[in-house]
Amino acid sequence: MASGKDQTSKNGKKEEPAIRVGFFQLFRFASCREICMMIFGSICAMIHGSAQPLMLLVFGMLTDTFIEYDIELNELLDIEYEMTNFAYYYVGIGAGVFILGYLQISLWITAAARQIQIIRKMYFRKVMRMEIGWFDCTSVGELNTRMSDDINKINDAIADQVGIFIQRFTTFVCGFLMGFARGWKLTLVIISVSPLIGVGAGLMALLTGLELQAYAKAGAVADEVLSSVRTVAAFGGEKKEVQRYDRNLISAQRWGIRKGLIMGFFTGYLWFIIFLCYALAFWYGSSLVVDTQEYSPGTLLQVFFGVLIAALNLGQASPCLEAFASGRGAATIIFETIDREPEIDCLSEAGYKLNKVKGDLEFHNVTFHYPSRPEVKILDQLNLQVKSGETTAFVGPSGAGKSTAIQLIQRFYDPKEGMVTLDGHDIRGLNIQWLRSLIGIVEQEPVLFATSIAENIRYGRPGVSNDDIITAAKEANAYNFIMDLPQKFDTLVGEGGGQMSGGQKQRIAIARALVRNPRILLLDMATSALDNESEAVVQDALDKVRMGRTTISIAHRLSTIKNADVIVGFEHGRAVERGKHDELLDRKGVYFTLVTLQSQGDKMEEAESSDPVAERKSLNRAGSYRSGLPDDDSEEVEPAPVARILKYNAPEWPYMLFGSFGAAVNGGVNPVYSLLFSQILAVRFLPALLLYSLQLLLCSYSQGYAFSKSGELLTRRLRRLGFHAMLGQEIGWFDDHRNSPGALTTRLATDASQVQGATGSQIGMIVNSLTNIGVAIIISFYFSWKLTLVILCFLPFLALSGGFQAKMLTGFAKQDKDAMEAAGQISGEALNNIRTIAGLGKERNFVEMFEVQLEAPYQAALKKANVYGACYGFAQCVVFMANSASYRFGGYLVYREGLHFSFVFRVISAIVTSGTALGRASSYTPDYAKAKISAARFFQLLDRIPKISVYSNEGDKWDNFKGDIEFIDCKFTYPSRPDIQVLNGLSVSVRPGQTLAFVGSSGCGKSTSVQLLERFYDPNNGRVLIDGRESTRVNAAFLRSKIGIVSQEPILFDCSIAENIRYGDNQRELSMDDVIAAAKKAQLHDFVMSLPEKYDTNVGSQGSQLSRGQKQRIAIARAIIRDPKILLLDEATSALDTESEKTVQEALDKAREGRTCIVIAHRLSTIQNSDIIAVMSRGYVIEKGTHGYLMGLKGAYYKLVTTGAPIS
Fold it and tell me: Which chain regions cross the lipid bilayer (predicted)?
C-alpha cells in the first residue's frame, strides 16, 4: 500500500553543480555601455578604498599637533585654528566618500540590472523553445526556482558586491602600503603575528561540516520512517520511532556543543591574538618613539592602524568571494540551458508546409520510450493507420501507449525508430508550428489559462473574430451556459480554470479546439471527467464536429467508442487488434475484457442512477500523464514571536544567564580599552593589555559554551517535537507534495537548527552591544560631558549606517521578489501547462507577455540603484563627519576650557567604537529574521490539529472486539486529488471470521477501501461500521491495534529480523518465544535458522538483503504477532513466483483461521474459497457472492474466470 509513494523521495536533495563558468564569463551579456559603467564604477571604488588610509594620515598629523601643543603648553600654537583645519580635511574626505560611494554602487547595480534583464529574457525564450522531453526530465518547480533564485544569485555576483570587493581590496593594499611607507620596522613586527589569526578562522570552517555529518544518522532515521509512514501508522509504531530518532539526535547534539565550545574558544583566541598584536606593537612602537626617537607618536598610530584596517578589510572582502562563487555555480546551469539547442525546435521556421492536407496518419514500426524513463518501452514496433475523415478509437489498459501515440502525432517527441507520416510525408520534415496548427486536441483534464473565456477560446487561433468565437462555443454546446454567466464571455475562469466545473472546462476546451478549424481532431478521454448529463451534451458536441475530420478518440467508456468507424486495441505498446465493435467482441481480446467489466458496471449504474450528478470517473485511470502539481513550497508564514521560541528554551535558563554574563563582560571591555588606548601616547601599559586579552579569552569561551549548549538542547527538543508532530498527522497530510519525506527531512534538519539564531547567540549579541554602549557613555561623561553630548548626536547615524551595511550584505532580496511576482506568474503558468501551449503553438505569446512583465522589475532595479547608492555613500561618510565635528569642538574645549587633549581622544574613541558595535549588533538581524521564520514554520506544524489523531485517547474502545465490518454507501476522494472520485457508493459487509475478497481492475478502489478501514482516511460520505460502531468515533490507535496488514510490497525497517517481527506489536514487550512462534506460523522459522546470524540478521535498508518471498513472510509474521482480529491482505502474493507463492499462501491460510479477513488479489486461485467475493468497478461493487453463486450468475466474474482474461 505504501510502497509506490514512498520509494520516490529517497534521493532527497541534488548535488550542487560543478562550477564551469569563469568569473568574467558572467558578464558575457554586457554591451559597451554597461562595460563603461562597470569600469567607471570600479575606478570610483578604488579611490573610495583609499579614503580610510588617507584619513589615518590626517589622524597622525592631528595626534602630533595635540602632543606638540601639550608639550609647548599653549604658547605658540593656535590650537583652535589647527583643529579647524583638520576638521575641514575630514569634511572634504567625507564629501568625497559620499559621492564616490554613490557612484560606485549605483553604476554597478544599473549595469547589472541591464544584464540580468537580458539573461532572464534569453533564458525564458530558450526554455519555451525546448522540446517536451526536456520538460519531462526537468521539474517545473526546479525551473521556477532557477528563474527566480538562480538568476538572483548571478545578480548578486555581478552587482554591488563587485564594487564593494574592489573597494575593500584597495583599502587592504593602501593600508599596508602606508604602513610600509611610514614605518616599515613596526609593520613587519605586526605582520609576523598575523598567521595566527588565519589558523583560527580556518579551523572554524572545518567544524561546521562535522556537525552536519553527525546529524546525518538521525536524518536517515527520519527519512526511513517518513518514507514508510503508512507501515508505521498501521503498526502503531509512532512513539517507538520518536524515541529511536531522539537517541540518534544525541550525537548531533554533542557535536553542536563541541562546535560551540571551539567557536567560543576561537572567538576568544582571535581577540586574544589581536590584543597581543596591540601590546607587541605598542611596546615596540613606544620604544621606537621614546628611546630612539625614530617615529613621532602620530606615525606610530598611522602605522598601527594602517595595518589593522588593512587586515580587517581583507576579512570583510571575503563574503563577497562567496557571492561570486555561488553566482558562478548558478550561472553554470542557466548558461548551459541558454546555449543548449532544442532537439525539436518549436519556433524554428524550417520545414515544409503542404498546400493541401488530406489527413491520413500512419505509424511505421514506431518504437519509443520517454526520455525521462529510458528503461520502459512505451511503444514497441507500433504499426497503425488512421484514414482521413474517419473516427478511430484507441482502447486498451493504462500504460499501453495510447496517449503516447497521440503525443507523437503532435510531435511533442520524435520516435526512437520508425516514423510517423501525414499524407505520406514524415512529420519530422514538416514545419512544427504549421503541423500543430492543423491539430485540435481536447484532453482529459483540459488546461485553461487565467484570463476570460473569450480569450481562452481565442488562444485556439490568433486573430479570430468574435463571431467565430460564438460559433465555436455553439458547436461545443458551451454557448448557453456561457450566456447564463453574469459576465458572459468576459467571465474569468480563474487560475487553471478553477472557477468552472469539469463539464464547462471541457466544453470551453472543445470550443478552443474547434475555433482552429483543425484537419485532425485528437480526443484524449475528452468526456471521462464528466457526469452523465454533461457527458451526453459534450459527446453530442463531439459527434457534431467529427464530421469530415480525421478524428482519433481515446476513451474507456463504451458509449463513446461504439460508434467509431474503427476501433484499435492497444496492449504493451502495440496495436493488437483492429475492427468494428462487433468483430472485436468475437475475438475475446483486450476490447472484450474492457467491455465485460464495463457493461456490468453500466447495468449497476442504471439501477442506481437516481443520483445523476455524481461525477462518474472513467473505468480505469486518472490520466496517464498528470502535469506535476505546481511546486510552490514556500507558503508565507508570519515570523514567530520570540517569547514563544524562548519558552521552548526555558529549561536552559542557567546556561543563558551564564552566557549573558560573559557577553556583558566582553561588551564592557571595548570602551575600557579605548581609555587605555589614549594613555598609550603617554604611558606604556603592557601588563594591562595582557590581562585584558586573557580575560577576553575566558569570557568568550564561557559565552560560546553556554549559548551553544542551550542552543543545541533547543534544536534537539524542537527536532523531537517536530518529528513527533509529523508522525501524528493523518496520512492524507503526507500525500500533499509539500510534505514529501524529502521536504520534511530537510525541514527537520535545517529549520530546527536555524531557530537557534533567535535565542542564545542573539541574546549574547544584544547584551554585548548594550553593555558596550552603556560603559562607553559613562566613561565619556566622566571625562567631558559637553563633548560627549556633541558626539551623541551622531550616534543614531552611526548605528544606522552599521545597520544599513548589514542589510546591504543580505541584499534587498524581498523587494526584488515582489517585483518579479507578475513575471513569475506568467512563467509559472507557461511552464506548468507547457503541453497545452505547445499544442496550441502559443510559445511566442507567452515569451512576449513575460518580457513585458520584466520591465517593472528592471525599472525597480534602476530606482534601487540610486536609493541604494545614496544610502551607501551616506553610511560611509557619517564617520568622517562625526570625527570632523568632534575634533573641531574638542579643539575649542582644549583652548577655552583647558580640557586635557588626551581626554578628547578618550571620549571620541570610546563613543565611535561603541557606535560601530551598535551597527555590528544590528548586522546580526538576518540570522534572527531567518530564525523567526523557521520557528514559525515549526510552530505551524506543532499547532496543526490532525484530522485523525493517533496520540489522543478520545474515541471508543471496547473489550470483546469481534471484527464485524460493514461499508455503507462510502464515497471517497483522495485529499490530494479532490477531482477524482475513487469510491462511489461502496456497500459491502463481512461477518466476524469470514473472508471477503475484492476483485476488479486497478484504480477501482480496492486498496482504498482497505485504507478507510485502517482509518488512514475517513470517507467523505457514507459510513464504515466496525462491530456496529462508526469508524470515525473509534479511537484510531485502538482500531489499528486490532488490524494486521500484509501488503503487496511490504516495507521492512533497517534493523534485525527479530526487531522487524516485534514491530508488529508496539504496545507490549515481546519475548523471543513470541517471535519464534509467529515465525513458525509464517513458515519463516526454518529459513531464519539457516542464516548465520539467525534472528539477528540485518535485513538491510528497505529489506534489500532478502528475497521477495522472505520479506513477504517476515511481514506475515509481523502481522500474526499482533494477534489481530482483522487481517488485511493486499495482493500479498502477487509479487511472488509459484514456488514461494505456495509457501506464503499456506502461511496465509493458517493465519486466516478464526479471523475476519479481507483479501485483494489478482489471481483467481487465491480467491475461490473466500466466503464473499466482491467484484468492483469504478468505486462500487457490481456483483458479490460466493464463487459458485457468481459463476451461476454468468456476469462479470464468470466472464473473467472462463475467458481467463486478466482482471486488471
Answer: 35-59, 87-113, 162-180, 186-207, 261-283, 295-314, 653-673, 685-707, 789-810
